[in-house]
Amino acid sequence: MRAQYHLRILIFISLIAVIFNNFCNAQDSLLLAKLKSIEWLEGPGTADIGSIAEITVPEGYLFTGREGTQVLMELYENLITDLELGYIQPENHDWYVVFEFEETGYIRDDEKSDLDADEIFTNIKEANEASNKERRKRGWSTLTAVDWFQRPKYDEATHNLEWAPRLIDENGLYTINYNTRILGRRGVMYVTFVITPDSLFDYLPEYKNLISNFVYKPGNTYAEYREGDKLAEYGLTALMVGGGAALAAKSGIFKWLWKIIIVFFAGAAGFLKKLFGKGKEKKNPYVS
Predict the structure, then answer these.
(1) pTM
(2) Rounded CA gap, 189 and 53, in Å?
(3) In a domain, 282, yes or no
(4) What distance in Å separates the CA atoms of residue 95 and residue 213, rounded to the nearest whole number?
(5) Mean pLDDT over all residues of the chain?
(6) For 274, how many CA atoms within 13 A lie in the half-sphere containing its CB?
(7) Quick check: helix, strand or coil at residue 146?
(8) Structural domain total, the chain
(9) 210, 88 in Cβ contact below 8 A?
(10) Rounded to whole angstroms, how far apart are CA atoms 64 and 98?
């Protein structure tokens, strides 16, 4: 009897192991199927970012447009903003860049000399709590700003605003969202470079070179502003802490607050860990 009891226990444990393994394989298959549904442009080439801009995609890089970007953001456990227009990454998937555009109107840069980094950081942390509430509802790890990696700076020649908070999730994993806001005639392109802190210095020059090949299409550049064009209701400081969406939230226009306040991006590490569990072969999941 005792031997039969132990045998039943071993059979039960073995059955659970098989079910769990099949479940994990099914989950992996689902994730891979979603990846394979994405239409990729493999560099070298030129990619349209919506209808208002384009970027040169170098050899060894992958680009996808709006729909592919939204699939990836969901897989990476990042909130969809409905502003997504494009996503680019190297084939080794060590980092990625997201492009989003908001038609804010022309944003004047007269605050360029008055950017208070300490006050801005405090406001960013407060604004992000709304998106963390949504992350908790979905069972995702929250993201918290720790400190500045790059304090806010504005380049008058390119009309680019840059800043980079260092973030930590509930599992103690750090990531950096290196933000570039490229001002245009009718709005602003949100460009977010997502990378781990230990890799940033290695890849930051590569990112800078990549972004240097971003251009607004004719009629959309900041320099082409004309009298009578729509003007944004805020300047550079508000742009960093939610922009027009934050103003709308305060007025009670929107109910889905998390979508319109600061949304930090988690890295791809968590997603890749699901695909590349212990002992699995590390093939590139992004290309067939």
Answers:
(1) 0.78
(2) 9
(3) no
(4) 18
(5) 79
(6) 17
(7) strand
(8) 1
(9) yes
(10) 10
CATH of the domain at 209: 3.40.1000.10
Q: What is the pLDDT of residues 87-122, one digit of tens each?
A: 999 988 889 999 999 999 999 999 999 999 998 898
Instruction: Count the neighbouring beta carbons within 10 Å of the beta carbon of residue 13.
Output: 10
DSSP 40-100: -EESSEEEEETTTEEEEE-TTEEEE-HHHHHHHHHHTT----S-EEEEEEETT-S-EEEEE
User: Does residue 242 sit within a domain?
Assistant: yes
**CB distance 124 to 97 below 8 Å:** no
Identify whether 13 is part of a domain. no
Q: Which residues pair with 64 in a beta bridge?
A: 87
Q: How far lies 130's CA from each of 118, 141, 257, in Å?
A: 20, 14, 6
pLDDT in tens, 243-286: 555 444 444 433 333 333 345 556 555 555 554 454 444 455 55
3-state SS assignment for residue 280? coil
Q: Which domain holds residue 126?
A: 37-275
Residues 6+ apart with CB under 8 A from 123: 240, 241
Q: What does the DSSP assignment read for 162-231?
A: EEEEEEEETTS-EEEEEEEEEEBSS-EEEEEEEE-HHHHHHHHHHHHHHHTTEEEPTT-BGGG--TTS-B
Q: How many angstroms separate the CA atoms of 40 and 68, rounded?
A: 8
First to last CA, the chain: 53
What are the two backbone dihedrals, phi and then psi, of residue 240, each rounded to the nearest 5 degrees?
-80, -15
Calpha distance 183→252 (Å, rounded): 27
Contact 81/263 with Cβ under 8 angstroms? yes
Which string of b and e fits 127-150 if b means at least 16 CB within 10 Å?
bbebbbebbeeeebebbebeebbb
Q: How far is it, in rounded angstroms, from Cα 262 to Cα 32?
A: 29
Question: What is the rounded distance in angstroms from the CA atom of residue 95 to the CA atom of residue 205?
Answer: 13
Task: Tokens for 188, please give them.
Answer: 């602003």
